[in-house]
Amino acid sequence: MYRTLEVLGPEHEFSIVDEALRPLPIVDRVIKELKGRIVNNVPLRGFTFGKELQSHVAEIKANSPFRSPRVFEETMHRAVLEIGEVLERRFHAGLLGSGMHPFLELGEAEIWPHRDRSIYEAMGRVFNLRQHGWLNIQSFQLNLSYSSEEDGVKLYNTLSNILPYLPAVSAASPVYESKMGECVDNRLHFYRINQREAPSMTGDVIPEYINSFREYRKVTVDKYSTELRRLNAHPCIIGKEWLNSRGAIFRFDRKAVEIRVMDEQECIKSDVALSCFIRALLRGLLKEESCLPHELLVEDFNSVIRDGLEAKIHYPEASKARDVCLHFYETAVRNSTEEERKYLWLVRKRIVEGNLSDLIVRDIVKKSQKTSLVEAICNVYLALVENLRDNETYS
Q1: Closest Cα to residue 60, out of 36, 30, 37, 89?
Q2: What is the phi/psi pair of residue 204, to 5°?
Q3: What is the Cα–Cα distance from 243 to 188, expressed in whole angstroms?
Q4: C-alpha–C-alpha distance, residues 352 and 271, integer Å
Q5: Which contacts qualify for 286-291: CB closer than 8 Å, 24 or more apart?
Q6: From CA 281, how far away is CA 333, in angstroms rounded?
Q7: Are 199 and 126 in contact (CB under 8 A)?
Q8: Distance between CA atoms of 84 and 87, rounded to whole angstroms?
Q9: Would you identify the CATH topology of the domain 8-389?
Q10: pLDDT in tens, 281-336
Q11: What average pLDDT does this structure show over 86-98?
Q12: Per-residue three-class SS string for the chain
């Protein structure tokens, strides 16, 4: 496998939209166009195109993790262009990033009806899937490699001290149902509460500290599996490690920890920048071995979801999330490679000038002074479609 933090494994989620930004539940038709029949995933050159729970959301992930951020950017942008060409030519459609679709109506959303539908049906018998936390979320997931159990546990615990503040930089979901949400990161707001029937599935989103893989399985997987049994869940979703919905989970099959608190950004370059920031930051923090109390991390996380960079937090020597992020940025710069430093400027820009949610809101408010709110939202998000296609950051 790989050394600890040697590689970056990205997974991107995008909405398929028409020219008016309407979500199109056609992932199965795109897969059939690519493969000739409907399957869950289609491996292509360097990347895989696949389905999600929602029939309008597609996943694009790397076939192999990347050592080089530059190769990461080149490969995944090429993936966006290749899928975009098929969408434009066959369906007059395109891809939209960001953390939530701005116009999706839950009653109109469709759930994947093909292979693996039995899993979704089993989930639907336990949970109310007709929620934004299920049907209207798009995350950028990052897999970070570890080489041993000791390194994996240390990586997991250290991430618990980063995750509460990461959405201050990565929030990209200010709008849903054609209106401004109450939070800077509305995707995470709904994500926190989408599994209330079995609360141990999500926990506090911020992972509990552990001392071993065995303890992890006991305090997370075994706990929510017991809870699901009490709810008479189907055996197909009992004891599954991938059901853990915390902000970071172990993927033992690939010897990686997967981060789930980041909204999908507007372009691949921005996703790469966040990845470089996290990897370089972890190099520095793994040397320090200092951990804040879990309950304080949870409080800070909830504040950041609501208020973003302006959130008041409990971090030592910092009063706002922006201060913590600037401290993290300085640590990342000191521990970054030359190639990573070429991307870190974008993270600093987002910390100083605002995350993508902030920028979207800024421009919607400005445009809505001359037109309707819906038209202003549409104008801004159509620009995001272009950002993704052209791999240009929104500013």
Answers
A1: 30
A2: -95, 15
A3: 17
A4: 18
A5: 286/154, 286/155, 286/158, 289/154, 290/161, 291/157, 291/158, 291/160, 291/161, 291/209
A6: 8
A7: no
A8: 5
A9: Creatine Kinase; Chain A, domain 2 (3.30.590)
A10: 999 999 987 899 999 999 999 999 999 999 999 998 899 999 999 999 999 999 99
A11: 98
A12: CCCCCCCEEEEEEEEEECCCCCECCCHHHHHHHHHCCCCCEEECCCEEEEECCECCEEEEEECCCECCHHHHHHHHHHHHHHHHHHHHHHHCCEEECCCCCCCCCHHHCCECCCCCHHHHHHHHHHCCCCCHHHHCCCEEEEEEECCCHHHHHHHHHHHHCCCCCCHHHHCCECEECCEECCCCEHHHHHHHHCCCCCHHHCCCCCCCCCCCHHHHHHHHHHHHHHHHHHCCCCHHHCCCHHHCCCCEEEEHHHCEEEECCCECCCCHHHHHHHHHHHHHHHHHHCCCCCCCCHHHHHHHHHHHHHHHHHCECCCCCCCEHHHHHHHHHHHHHHCCCHHHHHHHHHHHHHHHHCCHHHHHHHHHHHHHCCCCHHHHHHHHHHHHHHHHHHCCCCC
pLDDT in tens, 183-207: 999 999 999 999 999 999 999 999 9
